[in-house]
Design brief:
This protein is α/β, with parallel strands linked by helices. The protein folds into two domains: 163 residues, Quinone Oxidoreductase, Chain A, domain 1; 142 residues, NAD(P)-binding Rossmann-like Domain (Rossmann fold, 3-Layer(aba) Sandwich), CATH 3.40.50.720. Strands 3, 5, 6, 7, 8, 17 and 18 form a seven-stranded mixed β-sheet that branches. A six-stranded parallel β-sheet has the order 11-10-9-14-15-16, with helices on both faces. Strands 2-1-4 form a three-stranded antiparallel β-sheet, with no helix packed on it. Zinc ion binds next to α3.
Length: 343
């Protein structure tokens, strides 16, 4: 092993450079991983288009990349249960001193050193059936699975899922894996509608104000409580995150239903809070993931009930970094863009 590696450095909006850096040293409580694949996240795209601080997630002039998988090449003296050669997914939060800095973990590199490496908390060994090509989806996948699990989604629930972007589609795949059959996916972008349908989803095109609740009434029936009739939706999962979805939900939701969102809309909005009481609504936010979500995602990838790997629309080398980011920024062409670094 040489002691130098290639890594991408984020230098500000529209500016990513490929540089030679020393391979990081293996920490006594961590592992050193040779990265095989690394995915470009929505947050990386925000930084690339608006600047790191504008997105509020990373400083300009920093390493970045937080969705990666690879092989362990060195194990710290204090680490238990992990070995050289293990194929692993790594929680990016264990590569930085503060998990809130995980966007700057440095996964767009040939090697990464973790600070800690507790098995099944920081580092998960991949089963043979799950290739690096698909395992690179684990991190964003877990974000979607967490949203579903925050809403305590059960097999018999009738679910309305907003959004067929990468996280929406992965959340859909997790619902299928769980055996949830009554799902409506609401999406507006034609290419994403088509992709969701190719995975088997019942997709409602809610562009131009088309009423998904009217469609849900047809498909799921209606539910009346206290003389108020509403579409019989148990769980609404918001993988889009525009405030209007929450406002529309509060107005249209049925009695005692659950709503979980991973949206990042910080603009103020008007709500009718009385509906929360009158309908006894549960509204919750969903942030990141727990180890249990990672275990579930690995299970989804292993069981292959959907062809979720097909959401990867582009694989690039580090020498094509600008092309990779430009593709990722294109909402039609760039559903999920990945760097193929090694096998
Ligand atoms: Zn991410």
């Amino acid at each position: 092993m040489t002691n130098m590696m290639k890594a991408l450095i984020f230098r500000g909006a529209g500016n990513v450079t490929l540089e030679e850096l020393p391979v990081p040293e293996c920490n006594p409580d961590g592992v050193l991983v040779k990265i095989a694949r690394a995915g470009i996240c929505g947050s990386d795209i925000h930084a690339y288009t608006r600047g790191g601080m504008a997105g509020g997630i990373m400083s300009d002039e920093s390493k970045f990349g937080h969705e990666f998988v690879g092989n362990i090449v060195e194990v710290g003296a204090n680490v238990e249960g992990l070995s050289v050669g293990d194929r692993v997914w790594v929680d990016p939060g264990c590569c930085v001193p503060d998990p809130n800095l995980s966007c700057m973990a440095g996964g767009f590199a040939e090697y990464i050193a973790t600070i800690t490496a507790v098995k099944d908390r920081d580092v998960f060994v991949l089963p043979d059936e799950v290739s690096f090509a698909e395992a690179v989806l684990i991190e964003p996948f877990a974000v979607g699975v967490h949203t579903k699990n925050r809403a305590r989604t059960c097999v018999d629930d009738k679910v309305l899922l907003y959004g067929a972007g990468p996280i929406g589609l992965m959340t859909y795949a997790a619902l299928v894996n769980q055996g949830v059959e009554n799902v409506i996916v609401a999406e507006q972008l034609p290419s994403r509608i088509e992709k969701a349908r190719s995975l088997g989803a019942d997709v409602f095109d809610n562009s131009n104000g088309a009423d998904v609740y009217a469609y849900a009434r047809e498909k799921f029936g209606s539910f009346t409580s206290n003389a108020v009739e509403a579409a019989d939706i148990d769980v609404t999962l918001d993988c889009v995150g525009f405030g209007v979805i929450l406002a529309t939900h509060i107005e249209n939701a049925r009695y005692s239903s659950r709503f979980s969102t991973l949206g990042m809309d910080f603009s103020p909005m008007t709500l009718v809070p009385g509906f929360l009481m009158a309908k006894q609504l549960e509204i919750m936010g969903s942030r990141c993931y727990d180890p249990a979500d990672i275990v579930e995602v690995i299970d989804v990838l292993k069981n292959r009930k959907t062809d979720i790997g097909s959401i990867i629309t582009g694989e690039f080398g580090f020498d094509q970094a600008t092309e990779a980011f430009e593709t990722a920024c294109d909402r039609v062409k760039g559903l999920k863009v990945v760097f193929n670094i090694a096998d």
